Amino acid sequence: MPRDLPVTTIMSSPAFTLTPETTVEEAIGALVERDIEGAPVVDTDGRLVGLLDNGDLIISEARLHAPTTIEILGAYIPLPGDLRRFNEEVRQALGRTVGDVMEHDPPSIGTHQTVEDAATLLLDRGVSRLAVVGDDGAVVGVITRGDLVKALRRREA
Question: Which domains does the chain have, with CATH numbers?
Answer without folding.
Answer: 7-156 (3.10.580.10)
